[in-house]
Amino acid sequence: MFAIVETGGKQYRVSEGDIIFVEKLDLEEGSTYTFEKVLAIGDGEDFVAGTPTVEATVTANVVKNGKGKKIHIIRYKPKKDSKKHIGHRQPYTKLQIVSVAKK
Questions:
Q1: pTM of the full predicted structure?
Q2: Fewer C-beta within 10 Å: the chain N or C terminus?
Q3: Residue 71 sits in which domain range?
């Protein structure tokens, strides 16, 4: 059984046991999170797409909160002696999907 869920403005295809990295959620490590927007659910034969959501529950455990790899942004203007270097690390929450079920 799999589901398509939305969180942080992005959509993820998940099934039981999957580990996903989502935009940072304000949750402690070890807590449980239930997705509010389940857009579709299905298994090998049946597939139900929501209009806009489906009545289903997808629960996950919070494994950890962290920051991603650093990306480097360099701004440069030729002939102006102008350079600027910026680094950014995007915060994330690592989730492990526990269950996917229809209501």
A1: 0.85
A2: C
A3: 2-102
